[in-house]
Amino acid sequence: MSKRRVVVTGLGMVSPLGNDVETTWSNIIAGKSGIGELTRLNKDDFPASAVAELKDFNIEEYMEKKEARKMDRFTQYAVVSSQMAVKDANLEINDSNADRIGVWIGSGIGGMETFEKQFEIFSKRGYRRVSPFFVPMMIPDMAAGQVSIAIGAKGMNSCTVTACASGTNSIGDAFKVIQRGDADAMVTGGAEAPISQMAMAGFIANTALTLNQDVTKASRPFDQDRDGFVMGEGAGILVLEELEHAKERNAPIYAEIVGYGSTGDAHHITAPAPGGEGGVRAMIQSLEDAGINPNEVGYINAHGTSTPYNDKYETMAIKEVFADHAKKLAVSSTKSMTGHLLGAAGGVEAIFTVLALKEKILPPTINLDTPDPECDLDYVPHEARKKEVKVAMSNSLGFGGHNATIVFKTYEE
């Protein structure tokens, strides 16, 4: 069976660097940080104060307050970003095509904020005062569910929950749905709103978060002085479409998605396998799926969390996969500017990877002031780089030993 070609025709995003794709991308290329002091919670309750919150985001600009109150923040972010992506793709969904358009949106932890608020109500006032919307607001699949309702998509509707790989796995899974012929278009990516008391407490307890009080310098992937990641929030959504379907309606085409790899470490619940062994296999799988030689890849948007083990092992994995070509690759971590959006990271970073191909400019890794000798690749330090590349890769690695890689290439007839 021949594989159907799949292209990216729409992009939508809300992020710590902007409430749309254009603003976020402009700030990424300018090397600006979206990280600041914790404002949503009492920062004095936590030793970690650096977070990447959305700024000036008002959900009532996008939907009725009555509807918004039935959604956790992560679902709100997904709905808004999905509507942006569908509009960007000029995709009209109606009775004639709704059952051939699906939604696949991942989230690492879903409605953590809703859970906390409703448990507090239960503790103080009893079960009768718990909201009837508690469960449908909390469960991670509700981003996909609410998006399908909002845009009228009646095709395959799913959610991948693989921690910090959720967004990338969702995009890869949606890609395969179209490739095998089960849908003509998929609205896909990741959404997360984890800036809550228990999420902060939990990640601090397992020593994952940075305690750096200089917040704009707190996320420093591949730097010798890195000490943990910065938690961020938002959503990144793409419209993937079968090529002929996109061409028939003269859709804009950003890039082609050509490869997907997904593996498990079978090693540890939080620590990556030594040497990034699972990541090695995911990257190799994605390249084999794409039918692309490793030497053709010009840019990698790394997982690059700014944690000691991840950055070291991901570097080792890239060198294992690409051998001598690894030194010629441009690699960057946009988490240096956005923070770590957990299940949404793969969604926003896929968008950055696609735009790097289309706009012929590679995002930088900021705060790389003291390079770690064990992290010795070209991480595009400090400033974006104008460079045309034909093939680019995005990596995501998650707690539980989840590894996911997707490969994009410049679209050609």
From TrEMBL:
Coiled coil: none
Lineage: Bacteria, Bacillati, Bacillota, Bacilli, Bacillales
Involved pathway(s): Lipid metabolism; fatty acid biosynthesis
Family (UniProt): Belongs to the thiolase-like superfamily. Beta-ketoacyl-ACP synthases family.
Purpose of the protein: Involved in the type II fatty acid elongation cycle. Catalyzes the elongation of a wide range of acyl-ACP by the addition of two carbons from malonyl-ACP to an acyl acceptor. Can efficiently catalyze the conversion of palmitoleoyl-ACP (cis-hexadec-9-enoyl-ACP) to cis-vaccenoyl-ACP (cis-octadec-11-enoyl-ACP), an essential step in the thermal regulation of fatty acid composition.
The protein's name: 3-oxoacyl-[acyl-carrier-protein] synthase 2
UniProt-listed CDD domains: KAS_I_II
EC number(s) reported in the record: 2.3.1.179
InterPro entries: 3-oxoacyl-ACP_synth-2, Beta-ketoacyl_synthase, Ketoacyl_synth_AS, Ketoacyl_synth_C, Ketoacyl_synth_N, PKS_Beta-ketoAc_synthase_dom, Thiolase-like
MF GO annotations: 3-oxoacyl-[acyl-carrier-protein] synthase activity
Chain ranges of the Ketosynthase family 3 (KS3) domain: 3-410
UniProt entry keywords in alphabetical sequence: Acyltransferase, Fatty acid biosynthesis, Fatty acid metabolism, Lipid biosynthesis, Lipid metabolism, Transferase
